[in-house]
Design brief:
It is a single chain. The chain is an alpha/beta fold. The protein has one domain: Macrophage Migration Inhibitory Factor. A 4-stranded mixed beta sheet has the order 2-1-3-4, covered by helices on one side. Strands 5-6 form a two-stranded antiparallel ribbon. Helix 1 runs antiparallel to helix 2. The longest helix has 19 residues.
Length: 111
């Protein structure tokens, strides 16, 4: 269920790296690749970046908390993958979901 949102990348850039990244993250998290979603979010900078500035990627990972060690390994895997796409800088942030605030088809995940 981890959801990865990528900014500063084009979908075509990420498409070839997505499956290997999902496999690596699944191995780290101990789950199947079908638990992951990855999306590229198109943004237009209106402040703080100019057209000649180097590409900078920002990756937001929403998930149920898995602990510092797993978080570190996932951040490293994502960073390595994105840098491998030719991006000069990558920032990764984790947003922890609470089970009592997460619903699937209108039903709370927390029992």
């Amino acid at each position: 269920m981890p959801h990865l949102l990528f900014r500063g990348l084009e979908a075509d850039q990420l498409r070839t790296a997505a499956a290997p990244l999902a496999e690596e993250l699944a191995a780290i998290c101990g789950c199947g690749t079908d638990n992951f979603t990855m999306s590229c979010v198109h943004t237009s900078d209106v402040f703080g970046a100019g057209p000649q500035d180097p590409v900078f990627a920002f990756v937001e990972i929403g998930w149920f908390e898995r602990g510092q060690d797993i978080r570190n390994q996932c951040a490293e895997a994502v960073t390595k993958t994105v840098l491998g796409l030719g991006v000069q800088e990558v920032e990764v942030v984790f947003q922890a979901y609470r089970e009592d605030s997460y619903y699937i088809n209108g039903k709370p995940v927390a029992g």
